[in-house]
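Figure 6 in text form: structure in, sequence out.
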């Protein structure tokens, strides 16, 4: 089937694979609606090491991929041969992990003579918003917050984006994990920081780093502020109230992110801001973004918490958008390979 034929198909069924980090995921989408979404997480495996170990992640993808795909097909009530096309995350992410998904889906596509759509992982996170709210339409501001990326983008159209700014050092998810380690909280750090913060107060001063652009971030300085605070308190024999530190850190980060997104919406005269990425599940970021938008007559959009983290439903949705609104450039060639780093959008 050609790309033009895919574009004209009324009942478009897509089987998608995501394996960019430590989740092996497969989903089936028909006309933008989820028929099934299966995720096999490796959190329990990597918890012992305090973070994702790339080689271990790759090995477990090899073990999990076949049963995950079969479960997704069974739940959707279809066979692989019933799909009109396949989709796969080809970047960015851990190279070995990506290779497992790319190789599997290339094989499936070749064996069944079906087109394969290559998907940018970050665009997938943005597309998760359409699953939660099909009425969302470009243009709008996208606030990307994940373990590997932090950025503000203008979503000009379904397949067209303008990069406005991003982190100059750590991604926001990395900052959460590093601060969690400083506070001796277990991996993954994001949910643990949020859990600890619920019992705390914002009593620790954490300065927001200055950047040249209102859309750029620096989380390394914030992380260092927390480390210095904890070490200084220890040297003085003072008690460190983890809940207060977690609350102060989380609130400061949320303010930085929300301020940048709101500034972008104001500058470009847009009324919608959509959150995207795993850290988008954080309740404080959601609360502050909602509050800021309500005050300024804007509307905040959020994926479900299940589709904030890595999943294949968002990859299938991005593939669907590429087919319906794209120019065919996302159609994978035989030479498609996994890429650890690709342009953000």
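Output sequence:
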């Amino acid at each position: 089937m050609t790309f033009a034929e895919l574009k004209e198909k009324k009942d478009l069924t897509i089987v998608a694979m995501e394996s960019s980090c430590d989740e092996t995921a497969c989903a089936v989408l028909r006309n933008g609606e989820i028929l099934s979404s299966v995720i096999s997480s490796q959190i329990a495996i990597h918890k012992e090491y305090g973070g994702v170990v790339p080689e271990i992640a790759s090995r477990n993808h090899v073990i999990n991929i076949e049963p995950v795909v079969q479960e997704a097909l069974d739940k959707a009530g279809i066979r692989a041969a019933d799909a009109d096309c396949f989709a796969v995350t080809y970047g960015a992410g851990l190279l070995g992990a990506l290779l497992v998904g790319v190789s599997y889906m290339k094989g499936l596509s070749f064996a069944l003579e079906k087109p394969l759509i290559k998907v940018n992982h970050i665009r997938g996170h943005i597309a998760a918003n359409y699953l939660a709210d099909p009425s969302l339409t470009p243009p709008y501001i996208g606030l990307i917050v994940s373990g590997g990326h932090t950025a503000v983008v203008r979503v000009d159209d379904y397949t067209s984006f303008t990069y406005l700014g991003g982190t100059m050092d750590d991604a926001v998810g990395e900052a959460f994990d590093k601060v969690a380690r400083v506070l001796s909280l277990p991996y993954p750090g994001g949910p643990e920081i949020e859990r600890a913060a619920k019992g705390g107060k914002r009593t620790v001063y954490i300065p927001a780093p200055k950047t040249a652009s209102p859309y750029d971030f620096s989380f390394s300085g914030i992380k260092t502020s927390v480390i210095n605070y904890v070490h200084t308190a220890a040297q003085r024999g003072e008690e460190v109230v983890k809940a207060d530190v977690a609350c102060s850190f989380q609130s400061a980060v949320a303010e930085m992110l929300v301020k940048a997104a709101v500034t972008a919406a104001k500058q470009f005269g847009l009324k919608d801001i959509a959150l995207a990425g795993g850290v988008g599940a954080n309740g404080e970021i959601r609360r502050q973004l909602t509050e800021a938008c309500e005050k300024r007559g804007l509307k905040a959009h959020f994926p479900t918490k299940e589709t904030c983290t890595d999943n294949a439903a968002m990859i299938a949705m991005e593939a669907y958008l590429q087919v319906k609104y794209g120019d065919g450039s996302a159609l994978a060639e035989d030479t498609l390979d996994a890429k650890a780093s690709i342009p953000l959008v």
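Caption detail: The chain has a mean pLDDT of 96.
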